[in-house]
Design a protein that fits this description.
The chain is of the alpha+beta class and about 700 residues long. Helix content is about 50%, strand content about 15%. The chain folds into three domains: about 350 residues, no CATH class; about 120 residues, Rossmann fold, CATH 3.40.50; about 150 residues, Jelly Rolls. Strands 7-16-15-18-13-10-8 form a seven-stranded antiparallel sheet, with no helix packed on it. It has a six-stranded mixed sheet with strand order 2-1-3-5-4-6, sandwiched between helices. Strands 9, 11, 12, 14, 17 and 19 form a six-stranded mixed sheet that branches. Helix 21 links the parallel strand 1 and strand 2. Helix 4 packs across helix 5. The radius of gyration is 33 Å and the shape is elongated.
Length: about 700
């Protein structure tokens, strides 16, 4: 027998078995979200928008080390070591959790972000009552929120987003209560929550001003219709209750921004971070909002990161079946969502993490439409459960297209060069960093304060001296040069080495950066790093002798034997002998691994150009009848007895076609070579000498 149709009002009248199913659906969705958010929990924070994560983590690290202070440390530019952006609500909580709980800082940051997101849900649950939804139907909206792709990723990042979101939503909840009950407790809560929300992130608080204004208008309308007392009395009470929290929040935020700007303007390197410099960029040009590409980008962010295309379509159909009250509520949510990119156009256009603030309004609006239509007589059980299942499946599909990448692909580990810098410098030492703008990556993982020459201002030495003049003498304990432009700038290296007493050659190097140390710090650093292996960086100096060559043969050479080398080598040490021969029509030096060929560079020489390669027989056949590769290295034997690695590369032509044939070497030193140069060939990682016939050609040292 067919069940008689019931009106939506009748359907809401009591609890039904389906209510429990909705509860279990929500719990399953929330459990799945928690599982996703805790995947790769111990991975690094170098996944998405790592610059912003690192900046936040850097402040939290120094807060944990130095304690809380309003002018909290973000030591990247020299004294006063502070560049206050947002009020450090999140950073202070993370530092406290890490210290009290004994957690690694990055895991504490993830935990706090996830907990704040979870704490947002009860406030949202309460606010959904505005739409006239029963408790069980509100769970539908919460289910959509916890399965939104953006909330399956950003709560686990080292960012302030979910903290600001939680405070803003709880402010709305307190505002609603104080407008309805007129209790002093809720008013105080609204003031405190508005204050914290605005100070933590004003751009998030601004978005929630839209639903806050809607709640105020409803309260004013209700007061106006009550007819009790004079109009100014009826309207005045809800008006001041709504305005007081906002006024307190805005005044405090304006004072905080002014205070932060004064600190930023006190350092010549940080003035560009003042609000007066950033505001135009944050809002973006007015014309941006009229560009089709702007709205296309918003649409892409919605369908990839918030609500899939199919989920949006289902929500629109449900909106047609929803009650007027629910539709009005959803409309307010939609307007609030659009307020974000309309006000802060550039921020939303460039950074998708800003949608963590306003996505809740759009997704909750879709949830309100679905929940309100759930009991409509024209929405039978089979259709509504199918719609819910389709939405959840489509949400996962959207997540898989976007943020899922950062789960299955592990984030890269912290840079080894930062670990070397940490071991090689004292805890109170300062790093001088050029070529990396104000990227906190190396200072954060080195756990050292830094003076970063941002904005390519290396050609302004007086500005640098102004900043350094505020530091105690000899505070600079290392220099990091990042990027080829500054690494190859010999004049910069020479000037900085002389100014700060640094050795003129790098102590360690990675693919992107060089680390310079004071000459008297090299030996202690080598001792501390003895036996350590680094995957992404190399210590270029060594106090120990080179690895011995088994059954080494010593050879002395005459200059006329080596027309392909200028200057000619003086001697060699090898297991199988070093000879001169022909290869592909050119004279070459054959040097089977393991071998060392010694050159005395001309006075003032700073450059090495050469060709190296493995003989064709090394890759003529597939492994194991081929070479497993060789390691080629050029080393300088310095006058102080240290070995300095100038150039190093692993060649594996059997497995890497790009390693076949002649390989060019072009190395330039910032200072003249001070000792003999050794051209060394070693067997591959397996230590297998088979087929490791290497050759050198066209060697020039000048």
């Amino acid at each position: 027998m067919n069940e008689p149709a019931r009106s939506p009002a009748t359907a809401r009248a009591g609890s039904r078995p389906g209510d429990w199913i909705l509860l279990w659906v929500f719990l399953a969705a929330a459990g799945g979200a928690l599982w996703m958010l805790t995947e790769r929990w111990d991975a690094s924070i170098l996944d998405r928008y790592e610059f912003r994560q690192l900046q936040t983590a850097l402040s939290a690290f120094w807060m944990q080390r130095a304690g809380f202070q309003f002018d909290y440390l973000t030591p990247l530019f020299g004294p006063p070591w502070s560049i206050p952006m947002e009020f450090p609500t999140y950073q202070a909580i993370v530092a406290t959790v890490a210290s009290l709980g004994g957690l690694p800082l990055e895991q504490a940051g993830r935990l706090v972000g996830v907990l704040f997101f979870a704490a947002t849900l009860p406030a949202l649950y309460d606010l959904l009552g505005v739409a006239g939804l029963t408790p069980s139907r509100r769970l539908l909206a919460l289910t959509l929120v916890v399965t939104s792709p953006i909330y399956l990723f950003y709560p686990r990042t080292f960012m302030i987003e979910t903290t600001a979101l939680c405070l803003a939503v709880w402010f709305l909840c307190a505002l609603r209560r104080t407008l309805e009950t007129r209790g002093l407790g809720w008013l105080i809560a609204a003031v405190l929550l508005a204050l914290l929300a605005a100070l933590t992130k004003i751009t998030t608080f601004a978005v929630y001003a839209v639903p806050g204004a809607a709640l105020t208008l409803v309260a004013l309308g209700r007061a106006h219709r009550s007819g009790a007392g004079a109009a100014w009395q009826r309207l005045g009470a809800p008006a001041w209750r709504a305005l007081l929290p906002v006024a307190v929040a805005l005044v405090a935020t304006a004072a905080w921004v002014a205070h932060g700007d004064a600190i930023k303007h006190s350092n010549p390197y940080t003035g560009f971070l003042a609000s007066t410099e950033l505001s135009r960029w944050n809002y973006g040009p007015l014309a941006l909002r009229a560009e089709p590409s702007f709205w296309q980008h918003i649409g892409e962010n919605i369908t990839r990161h918030l609500l899939s295309e199919g989920a949006l379509a289902i929500a629109l159909v449900c909106a047609a079946l929803a009650t007027p009250r629910a539709r009005w509520t959803a409309l307010v949510g939609l307007i609030g969502f659009l307020a974000g990119p309309l006000i802060f156009a550039n921020l939303y256009h460039v950074h998708d993490y800003y949608y963590a603030a306003n996505a809740l309004l759009l997704v909750a609006a879709a949830g309100v439409a679905l929940a309100s239509a759930w009991d409509h007589p024209h929405f039978p059980a089979a259709a509504r459960w199918t719609a819910l299942g389709a939405i959840l499946a489509l949400q996962y599909y959207a997540f898989d297209r976007g943020y899922h990448y950062y789960y299955w692909k592990a984030a890269p580990p912290p840079p080894d060069l930062a670990a070397i810098a940490r071991e090689a410098t004292p805890p109170d030492g300062v790093l001088l960093v050029s070529g990396d703008d104000w990227n906190p990556l190396l200072p954060y993982y080195a756990q050292r304060r830094a003076v970063m020459v941002a904005g390519g201002r290396d050609d302004e030495p007086r500005v640098l001296e102004d900043v350094l003049g505020r530091l105690p003498t000899d505070s600079i304990k290392a220099m990091l040069l990042v990027g080829d432009d500054v690494r190859r700038n010999r004049e910069l290296v020479r000037a900085r080495a002389a100014r700060f007493g640094l050795a003129p050659q790098p102590f360690a190097s990675s693919d992107t950066a060089d680390l310079y140390l004071p000459a008297d710090a090299i030996a202690p650093a080598l001792e501390r790093l003895r036996g350590r292996h680094f995957a992404s960086a190399r210590v270029l100096l060594a106090s120990a002798p080179a690895p011995s060559i088994p059954d080494a043969k010593e050879q002395e050479f005459r200059a006329d034997e080596f027309p392909m080398a200028a200057p000619a080598p003086s001697r060699a040490r090898s297991q199988f002998g070093v000879t001169v021969g022909d290869l592909d029509g050119r004279r070459v030096i054959f040097a089977h691994a393991a071998s060392e060929i010694y050159f005395q560079p001309p006075p003032g020489a700073t450059r090495i150009a050469a060709i190296v390669g493995l003989a064709p027989s090394a890759s003529a056949k597939p492994p194991p009848e081929a070479s497993d590769g060789v390691t080629v290295e050029i080393v300088e034997l310095q006058a102080d007895g240290l070995r300095r690695s100038l150039w190093r590369r692993e060649l594996a032509p059997a497995t890497r076609p790009s390693d076949r044939g002649p390989q060019e070497i072009d190395f330039a030193s910032a200072v003249p070579f001070s000792g003999q140069l050794v051209f060394r060939v070693d067997p591959g990682p397996a230590g297998n000498f088979a087929y490791d016939q290497a050759y050198w050609a066209r060697i020039e040292i000048r």
